[in-house]
Each structure stands twice: as structure tokens, then as C-alpha cells.
Amino acid sequence: MQTVIIGSGNVAYHLAKAFTQNGISLAQIFGRNEKELQKISLELNIPYSTQKLEDADLYIICVSDSSVEDVSKIIIKKNALVAHTSGSLPKEILIGEYRKSSFYPLQTFSKSKDLDYKKIPFFIETENEEDQKTLTDLASKISENVMESSHEKRKYIHLTAVFACNFVNHLFARAKEISDAQEIPFDYFLPLINETVQKISEIEPKSAQTGPAVRNDQRVLELHEQLLKDESLEIYKTMNQSIKKMYQLP
Amino acid sequence: MQTVIIGSGNVAYHLAKAFTQNGISLAQIFGRNEKELQKISLELNIPYSTQKLEDADLYIICVSDSSVEDVSKIIIKKNALVAHTSGSLPKEILIGEYRKSSFYPLQTFSKSKDLDYKKIPFFIETENEEDQKTLTDLASKISENVMESSHEKRKYIHLTAVFACNFVNHLFARAKEISDAQEIPFDYFLPLINETVQKISEIEPKSAQTGPAVRNDQRVLELHEQLLKDESLEIYKTMNQSIKKMYQLP
């Protein structure tokens, strides 16, 4: 099966790398950003182009959500299978006379950070059973965790991931801002952060909650509000309000 | 040195366990909750009492912030060293004719979850150098990471920990609420969560940010807002507002 990846960002790079590492050769990596394509091409030994899209059986579109529709129109081959990799888009966003699908890896990707691809859940949606089998077999060469998922379910998977990953990372960024301002090394907090995360493999997060809000400790809550301002203060108030609500505190 | 721990909660239990595991015997564990004291006493082989506080050189108070002051008054021995374990209280909260100090372990404790005590940072504040040395030596038998810290600094350490631990755990709880409602197993998200945390040991959290807000993807942001309500919707809006502000997005 001739496979082409379209895009040169974090998802394109890591998918291409995962395929290559597992013996699946790619016919081409196609995109607009020649510099990034060149780097990926050189590292993974895959032909690239910014001009002419290779003829293929499977095209995997790894571009930002807002570009998926436009990019999908450049694929003119009939009878191809085309997949996007977005958590929030329906497969019908793809515009063309080909079979449409979604191939969604639930992970956060940065080019500079190695990943264990085996652990990444893949969620797949296709138009028919044959395509489902094709994409499931392909993903299973990379990952131990491959599932079918409707667009409806995928929307909620993506939303959950925004809370559990994107927002968590932003809390780390705001936390570091606070500790940096006091010249407290952020490394001090890594054991605490690791424990916070390890805990939820064993205990329900709701049962693992600690801190001033769940203790309803007004003195500390007021003290902290005095130390904060702007966005961090807003986060502080909103999170504590939500914690109090979850535990039915006054 | 005769040492007594006062309290029977998560911090009391884990400190008692860390001491015992490292060959430091405790003279007594003292508190109000006989059932909990009995359990700890039985597991760690430490005498307990709810009635008569043992005569000691060092008392470590491990009770909730709001009880520290009251509990500190029951220690009538002069020339003792008394420490509280709170991140947000000054050592002067302790009321009595003894030497006052703070002995703050930066970690989240749950009784049912084992911990690697070696990695826990301890922040110590005392009235004089001799007490500083006593508590530093004691903490160093448990942990590799023992530091002096003023009350001013400790307040910010605690505040940073609330963002990086308590709020992060609450995001997990809200995330699980969303996935539970759709019957999506929360286990799917554990590799993503682990990666989110591993990343920040290597990349600045600010540089590691992903998700719809930092991409300024209005379509997804609006879609997600339609899927949410109440506290989760408030969190969604507040976090995205803060992300946009940090990256100077419109």
C-alpha cells in the first residue's frame, strides 16, 4: 500500500517516524514548509515534495484543523482512502471523490520530545469495514491500543484531552511563573507533580483531591488571593469555585 | 532525641512511616482520632495516646492549618523544639514557651498510596542555627532534598504547589467526569497525561503548550463550549482566556 503523509508539523513528523520505525515505508511526505519537510526527509529517509503530490492508496492529512478542508481538495485521486488526524472534525470535512476517514492519535506531540508510540491510543472512523480493517491494521503496527470511534465520541475524547493535557500544561506554565518570580527553582515541584499524576492510576482523582479549597480553608484561600493577580487570580478563583461545588462545600 | 508526632492524618502517617523506615524511632503519636492512631500505631509499632502527651525534645504538629494554633497550646514543655508542617503558616502561629519552627514537606499525601520519601523536598525554618541543624539532619535521614526557607518564600512554594498539584488533580477529576458521561474509559488518557508531565522535565511548560486555545482555533473553542456547562464551562473559558493572554493572542 502506497502511503503519503501531508503536513510537516508535530503530528506529521511523529506519525512518519512511528511508521518508519515499524517498517512501514512512506511514498512521500508532502507539504508547504520546505525547510521542515527537508529535515523530516533527511532524518527518516522519505521523499518529500512541496509541488507534486505522489500517487497513493492512502493519504494521511496531518495539518491544523483549520486547514484540513482546503488541503483535502488537492487530493484528486479517485478510489484512494483519505484520513485526517483531528480530534474534533468529522470525516465529512474532507472534500473529494475518495473514501473518507479519521485516524486520530490521542497524544500531545512536540518534535523535540521522543515518544513511546506503542502506548498511544488510535481512534479510527471509516466509511466501510474494509477501510476500517486497513487503518486498524496499520495503526496496530504502531500501537497496542487501536479502537473504532464515531465522530460524536471523538469530540468528547478531544474535549477530555484538553482538560487533562492542554489545561494541565497551562497550570504548570502559570505555576512556574509564580515560582520564577520568587526565584524558587521549578524543579522542586517535579516530585510533587509526578506523584499527583501517579496517584490517579491508583485512586480516583475525585478521592485524591487535596489542598485548601477541598479543606474549605478560608484563611489560606484569602491569603493566596492576595498573592495573585490578573489571569492567575482568575484561575485560582474559578478552580476553587469548581472544587467547592464538586464536594458540595459552602 | 525524643520525638513525638501530633496528628493522625495523611501527613502524620507518612512522616511517621518515613521516620520509622529510616531507623528514627518515635516516642509517641498523639491525637484525637483513636481509630486512626491505633491503625498507625499497629502498622508502625509506635506508642499512641489521645490523653497524655509524652515528654519529648521535638514535637512535630501534623494537623490541618486551622487547628495548628490550638494544638500548639497543649505542648507545655519548655525548651522543647516544636515544628508545624504547614506551607502557609508562619512559625509564630505556635503558642507556647518553646522554640518554634516549620518543617514543611512539599508533597501530596494519601494514606493508601506509597511514596518515595527520598524525593520529597523539605523546607525548614527555625529560630536559631542549632535548631536549623537539628531539623536539617533529621529531614536528611528521610530525603535527599532539604532546604532552609523563610515563611515568605514558603507561602509562594505552597501557592505554586496548589496550581501544579491541587488544581491539576481537579482538572483530572473534571476530565474524568466528561469522559465518564460518554462511557469513555479514563485509562485511555493516562499515556497522554504521563507524556504531558514527562515533557515538562525537558521542555519549558510555556513552550510545550498545545491545544485549540494556543492555536487560536475559534471553531473548536466554540464547539467545545457547546458541549460543556456549569463549572466545567467556567474552567474552559477561564483557562483559554489565560492561555490566550500568555501567548498574546486576540
Biggest interface pair, counts:
A-B, 94 and 94 residues
CATH topology of the largest domain in chain A: Rossmann fold
Enumerate how many helices of chain A there are, as a single number: 8
CATH top level of the largest domain in chain A? Alpha Beta
Strand content of chain A: 5-15%
Describe this structure in words.
- Two copies of one chain form a homodimer.
- Chain A is elongated, with a radius of gyration of 22 Å.
- In chain A, 46% of the residues lie in helices and 12% in strands.
- Chain A has two domains: 3-149, Rossmann fold, CATH 3.40.50; 154-246, ProC-like, C-terminal domain (N-(1-d-carboxylethyl)-l-norvaline Dehydrogenase, domain 2), CATH 1.10.1040.20.
- In chain A, strand 1 (3-6), helix 1 and strand 2 (28-30) form a beta-alpha-beta unit.
- Chain A has 250 residues and is of the alpha/beta class.
- Chain A is built from eight helices and eight strands, in the order βαβαββαβββαβαααα.
- Chains A and B meet through helix 5, helix 6, helix 7 and helix 8 of A and helix 5, helix 6, helix 7 and helix 8 of B.
SSE diagram, text form:
The structure is a homodimer of 250-residue chains.
Chain A lengths: L2 E4 L3 H12 L6 E3 L3 H11 L3 E2 L8 E4 L3 H8 L8 E4 L14 E7 L16 E4 L3 H14 L3 E3 L2 H31 L8 H13 L15 H10 L2 H17 L4
Parallel strand pairs in A: 1-2, 1-4, 2-3, 4-5, 5-6, 7-8
Antiparallel strand pairs in A: 6-7
Brief description of this entry?
Two copies of one chain form a homodimer. With 250 residues, chain A is an alpha/beta fold.
